């Protein structure tokens, strides 16, 4: 047996192996796309996929091995950039909605840094017609009272 095709009497284990193989395939493909595209947006987007598809232990092992593959000087610079203020982790600009604008806005806001959310919120508010601004303020202030 090659590990993917288990005996029929061991269905639970077979399903688990198939789910694991699917997770590995998704991560491998995503990594390949990042290497092919080789741009910052692609690499930063990989973090979402890794969080969704890998356990914290798997992500830690991957980070450890990736840092060990670098020289000490480069590993320190990468760790500082990832953990420090050298390269702030941001969501970038919102993308076109897949289903509707509210779903995409909520998804983007979950990933955005606080200063990004505030900047887009203020710019969006200023771009609204006066009537929409008033309705928005009523909505927000009514929510605070509740």
Oligomer: single chain
What is the number of strand segments?
0
Helix content: over 70%
Number of helices: 7
Order of helices and strands: HHHHHHH
Rg over alpha carbons = 22 Å
Q: What structural class do the secondary elements suggest?
A: mainly alpha
Mean pLDDT: 80
* Biggest beta-sheet profile: none
Low-confidence stretches: none
Provide an overview of this structure.
This protein is an all-alpha fold. Helices cover 73% and strands 0% of the residues. Helix 1 runs antiparallel to helix 2. The chain is extended. The model has no long low-confidence stretch (mean pLDDT 80).
Please give the structural blueprint.
Layout: H1 11-37, H2 40-53, H3 56-68, H4 72-83, H5 101-111, H6 114-127, H7 130-145
What labels describe this entry?
mainly alpha, 146 residues, 73% helix
Entry summary:
The chain has 146 residues and is mainly α. It contains seven helices and no strands. The longest helix is centred in the N-terminal third of the chain and has 27 residues.
